[in-house]
Design a protein that fits this description.
Oligomer: single chain
Number of domains: 2
Distance between the termini: 22 Å
Number of strands: 17
Structural class: alpha/beta
CATH class of the largest domain: Alpha Beta
Strand content: 15-25%
CATH architecture of the largest domain: 3-Layer(aba) Sandwich
Length: 404
């Protein structure tokens, strides 16, 4: 496990906490404040321990001046004040004299929120490209850096990776929880371990499959990516989405692991990519003009048998065109089946998590990840940029003993 905020003496220290305040905003109102709430435990711990807290976060994407107006962090500031029930300072800048002065004037137990870190992307993508000068500047504001923005740990940005190069760094409670839930399930899974993958392209999940194919007992594949696997077996997939560059990969994988990979046997199809009622067809009945839009009822039953018999399930990606009401049944049925499993059940990925939340099933899963891209990166294995410069606790304890 990585070094956490609990391993630091925070008293009198300027503590930079990278949060994930990237909340959805519609007509000037935050429609879901979950991500802000997820940061509160770490922020409250820091101020209870007499830290001077500086909060950084991005909000949306900034490509032009209009985006700055749309994604002004002030709306997050207002919500944070409500949730914390405490005065918070806000500076409408990401750097400069007013930021420096606000940081100098911070007292123990006080909180300062800076403007959207991606405002810096307007000039040469300084935040997203991990600009060295910007990284050093933000690091100069603090004594300690705590990364608690799980949804961005897979990105090499100035406000997470960049700062961590120059300050003693750790993780907050949100990232700690995500790692504690996901890493044992990936490294030492309970068996039978069933991995469920969906989404559009096989290429997006190749690293996940490569990392987990030997660890999983079965991999159930739906969504657009299953079309490429089925095409590689010689089935006619009509006008369905195909990842042409991955056909050979799918064919080779099926040859080697045909006993592990479970593919759909029927679909809900349409003759055009629109949200209208489709037709259920077996895989052998698909015509040249058909588009596979969702997995069919026979496939749901087959997937259900593997789900019911599993001791651990990890799910990433929808089973069909989830954004269309006529084609979200497969995704919802899979969510329901997993929620009734009494083993370890983990879901990550935007549409999969949306399905679970829309059905109010969060409490019936062992863990619902707060980061789609980040959870996918964990499933892939390998280095995570936002954690790269943070010591493991064991390494930290060894260093501490040697030093003292």
């Amino acid at each position: 496990m990585k070094k956490t905020i609990k391993q630091f003496n925070l008293k009198n220290k300027r503590v930079i906490i990278r949060c994930d305040f990237n909340v959805p905003i519609v007509n000037g109102k935050i429609t879901d404040n979950t991500r802000i709430k997820s940061s509160l435990e770490t922020i409250k711990y820091a101020i209870r321990n007499n830290a001077k807290v500086i909060l950084l976060s991005h909000l949306g994407k900034i490509k032009n001046e209009d985006d700055k107006i749309k994604n002004d962090m002030y709306i997050v500031y207002q919500e944070l004040v409500k949730l914390m029930k405490k005065k918070i300072k806000f500076v409408n800048n990401t750097r400069g004299d007013d930021v420096d002065e606000a940081v100098r004037n911070l007292k123990n137990g006080q909180i300062l929120l800076l403007q959207n870190t991606r405002y810096e992307d307007l000039e040469d993508n300084k935040e997203s490209s991990c600009d060295e000068e910007l990284s050093k500047y933000w690091a100069s504001l603090g004594d300690i850096f705590i990364n608690d923005a799980f949804a961005t740990i897979h990105r090499k940005h100035a406000s997470n990776y960049g700062i961590s190069k120059y300050l003693d760094s750790g993780i907050g409670f949100l990232i700690e929880k995500e790692l504690k839930e996901m890493m044992p399930a990936i490294e030492l899974p309970d068996r039978p371990f069933v991995l469920i993958l969906g989404g559009s392209k096989v290429s997006d999940k190749i690293k996940v499959i490569s990392n987990l194919i030997k660890k999983a007992d079965h991999i159930l594949i739906g969504g657009g990516m299953c079309n490429t696997f089925l095409l590689s077996e010689g089935y006619n997939m009509g006008e369905s989405l195909i990842d042409k560059d991955s056909i050979e990969y799918c064919k080779n994988l099926l040859n080697e692991y045909s006993d592990k990979i479970i593919l759909p046997i029927d679909f809900v199809v349409s003759d055009e990519f629109v949200d209208k009622k489709g037709t259920i067809k077996d895989i052998s009945e698909i015509k040249d003009s058909d588009i596979a839009m969702d997995i069919g009822p026979k496939t749901i039953d087959i997937f259900g048998k593997y789900i019911n018999g599993a001791q651990q399930i990890i799910w990433n990606g929808p089973m069909g065109v989830f954004e269309f009401n006529n084609y979200n049944n497969g995704t919802k049925k899979i969510a329901e089946l997993i929620s009734n499993n009494y083993g370890t059940t983990i879901v990550g990925g935007g549409d999969s998590v949306s399905a679970v939340k829309s059905m109010k099933l969060e409490n019936k899963f062992s863990h619902v990840s707060t980061g789609g891209g980040a959870s996918l990166k964990l499933l892939e294995g390998g280095n995570i940029p936002g954690l790269e410069n943070i010591s493991d606790i064991d390494d930290y304890n060894i260093l501490k003993k040697k030093h003292f």
